[in-house]
Amino acid sequence: MPRSSKKKTTLPAAPKKTKSKTSNKRRKKKLPAGMKRPLNQYMLFRAETQPTVKAENPNIPITQIAKLVGEQWRALSDAEKAPFIAKAKALKVAFDKEVAALPTPPPSPEPSDDEANEAPAPKPAKKQKKAKDPNAPKRPLNSYMLFRKDVNTEVKAELEANAQEGEKVNITMVARAVGQRWRDLTDKQKAPYDEKAKALREAYKQLVAVAQ
User: Fold this and answer.
1) Is-contact 147 194, C-beta < 8 A?
2) What residues does CATH 1.10.30.10 cover in the chain?
3) Which CATH architecture does the domain made up of 138-212 adopt?
4) pLDDT tens-digit profile of 111-122?
5) What digits encode the pLDDT tens for the residues 137-177?
6) How confident is the model over 23-37, as pLDDT tens digits?
7) Nearest CA-CA partner of 70 in 48, 44, 40, 42
8) In sequence order, which ranges of 18-142 are alpha helices (DSSP H)?
9) Cα-flanking dihedrals φ and ψ of residue 138, to 5°?
10) Number of Cβ within a 10 Å radius of residue 160
11) CA angle 133, 137, 139 (to 5 degrees)
């Protein structure tokens, strides 16, 4: 009699346990209440300059004040930005030391088999930032910034010459003095700066139109 051939039954393979990605990662240390991340160089400059700009322009909205502060920052030379960059770096180093001294949080618990085998929820697509074109035309300076560019060095030299022994002239003092000079100008004295600023705006608009 022919032998009966027995069919081999294959059992389904057991699902592989997937390790939770979060279990292998170090948990991010949570900052305690009252501990804030340090300001960067621009925010340090803004903290110093914004009160002066606001006092000089009491009737304009905060968005316009922020714009003026940004224009002042962009108009600074590398040497003028250096103190803010150095201060921001020192604050970052001190902050990193404080964070390193914080207690490490306990690791997150291992997920159950069911949780480990669940497909991860799809992450929402990140909105990609539009890359800045290095060749894009730069925004033109306004009337006040053109005036400041003209007199900034002169005003700083005057303040340093009249400063008391040991007194250091900082950028806020210079900005305040330049702002006072600007307010003391007559409309006729401001007119050349207004006209130049207008011409620069028109030229900027034409360059943007060509670039598009």
Assistant:
1) no
2) 37-102, 138-212
3) Orthogonal Bundle (1.10)
4) 666 665 666 667
5) 888 888 888 888 898 889 888 888 888 888 888 888 888 88
6) 445 556 677 777 888
7) 42
8) 21-24, 41-56, 62-75, 78-101, 113-117
9) -80, 145
10) 13
11) 115
